Each structure stands twice: as C-alpha cells, then as structure tokens.
Amino acid sequence: MERPFRLRRSTLSVPANRDRLVQKAFTLPADVIMLDLEDSVPISEKDAARQQVVRIFQEADFAGRVRAYRINAMDTPWAYRDVIDVMEAVGDRVDVLVVPKVNDDSEIKAIDYLLRQIELRMGWTNSVGLEASIETAPGMLRVDAIAFSSSRLEALVFGIADYSASLTMPGGGVSGHGDGEDVYSGDRWHFPLSRMVMAAKAAGLAAIDAPYGDYRDPAGLERSCRLSASLGYDGKWAIHPDQLAAINNAYSPSLEEVERARLVLEAYERARQQGVGSVAVDGKMVDAASIRIAKQTCAHWAAISGK
Questions:
Q1: How many domains does the chain divide into?
Q2: Is the pLDDT of residue 183 over 60?
Q3: Are 237 and 211 in contact (CB under 8 A)?
Q4: Which CATH number covers residue 214?
Q5: 240 in the same domain as 283
Q6: DSSP state for residue 177 in the 8-state scheme
Q7: What is the model's pLDDT at position 131?
Q8: Most confidently modeled of 10-19, 166-175, 181-190, 278-287?
C-alpha cells in the first residue's frame, strides 16, 4: 500500500476533554491537530474524553489539516476502547491514529489487525494511518522492527520526556528539548534522534521530533528545529501556539531549494525524453538520490502552497 503524503511540519496536541483549547486549535496554523486521550486527560475523564473525540470528528471542520487522535498506551485498560469506540463511530473521518510509548512491533501489528476488521465491518474504503511514538529504551532498541511493522505506519515520533525517564536521565522538570542540556558536554539527544530517523527513512516513513519545552525561548526552539531538520526530520510537535509559525518555517523548503528541485526535475525529464542516461545541473551530475529528493521537495512545497 502506497503511503499518502501528509504535511507534518507542526503537530499540535490538544486535550480532548478541554473544549476551549480544541476550538482554539482550529484557528491556529498547525499542519496536524491531534486530539489527545493519553497524558493530558485525567483517569477520571478518559471515557468522557473518548466521546468528545467522536463528537469533534463528527462536527469539526479541520480545513485541510491532518485529522489525528492519540490513544492511550497499549499496556493500559483504555487503549482497546480508544480504538474501537472512536473508529467504529468516525473511522471514515480520521486520517491518523497515534500510538504512544510503543515498545514492540507487536503493538502496531495488533492495532493494524483491529483497524482492518473495523474497516471491513463498517464497509469503509479509506485506510487509517498510524504514527508510532518512540518514547522508551525498549522502543528505541526495537525501532527497526517497529518501523517496518505495518504498511499503515506513516511516521515515527520521538517522545523525549518519557525516553529520558526510561533512561533515568537527569532533567529540570521541563517536558521537551531544552531540559537539562547543560549537564552534558555534547548533544545528549543526538544518538536517539539519529537512530530513530535512520529507521524511519529506511522504511519510507516521516520522522517527527519532540517538542521544545520552554515556549518562552524562541532562540532555543529555532536551534532545536534546525538541528533535527538537518538530520532529516520532517516536523516537530508544539506545546504552545506561539511555537507554530517558527516550526512551520523551519521545516519548509526555502525558495532556493524549491527552484533547484524544479531545475533538477526538468533536466531529468529532458534527459529521459532524449534517451540520455546522465543528467547535469549547473555543471554537477544528478544521481537517483538527488532526483528523489527533488521530487520530495516539490511535493512538500505543493502541499504548503495549497494550504
């Protein structure tokens, strides 16, 4: 199954039980609105929040944004109802289901099987995508198997707070990048970021970075975006509306990159029509990898321009 291209520069997580925040989210420039049933919802409100997710998908106009929701972890008593109750009611209106704290590829396979049964029973022709959050040491250890676990899988997401807790890393209590980074002489997130993006790209998936914790530090946010974008990440979660514009900008191709991508594709098409095996742009040879990147850049820009 060919994976659809979805614009994922910015993901805004919204507690499903907080109607005011949900309504505000639809006025913000997030590429993905993710209704959350997990960490942001108290145990006493899990069942009510699930029904709120159904209502929102039934009534809300996402205006072209990716329609997503996050279930509770698979080792909790709420996950199966998060899948069945929501998907049977509004599965034809959901783009992506986000799975937190994935420790093993069997978790993604189990949800894949369950979604397939629901879609068959309901007679839906759409296929809901999955995102797997890598947030623990076991999850990072098995990230390769997770990345290749299902054709539904569209992205891997780095969950920095739970990952650092899983490794008993010291921190300052801020959830996200920028927490406790002065205690280590290098970049203590470089290995997990590199490890996860390698698995994601090998499987043809998007890679999404964890949020930057201090929304009052725009310079730190820009630095964090620049680092993960340079490693190949496609986007980042936001914890505050004020972060969205900077995140969108950081994970968008520049006009110069778009123009060069178009030149590469034009040169490739001319060479193909003329039966020429090699392609050069501005005196530099263009290989298959360059053509693939050019296609991705143009698709990315087309999605941005169409918003």
A1: 2
A2: no
A3: yes
A4: 3.20.20.60
A5: no
A6: B
A7: 98
A8: 10-19
Q: Per the domain annotation, does 2 fall within a domain?
A: no
Q: Does residue 1 form part of some domain?
A: no
Please tell me the pTM assigned to this model: 0.90
Of 166, 104, 170, nearest in space to 132 by CA:
104
Report yes or no on 5 lying in a domain: no
> 130: helix, coil or strand?
strand
Q: Do 180 and 75 reside in the same domain of the chain?
A: yes
Given 250, 279, 297, the domain boundary residue is 250
| pLDDT tens-place string over residues 33-50 | 999 999 999 999 999 999
Q: Which contacts (CB < 8 Å, 24+ apart) does range 144-149 have?
A: 144/199, 144/202, 145/104, 145/105, 146/102, 146/104, 146/105, 146/108, 146/199, 147/199, 147/200, 147/202, 147/203, 147/205, 148/105, 148/203, 149/105, 149/106, 149/108, 149/109, 149/112
Angle ∠(96,141,204) on CA atoms, nearest 5: 40
CA distances from residue 15 to 25, 46, 70, 109, 265 in whole angstroms, order as listed? 10, 11, 10, 26, 43
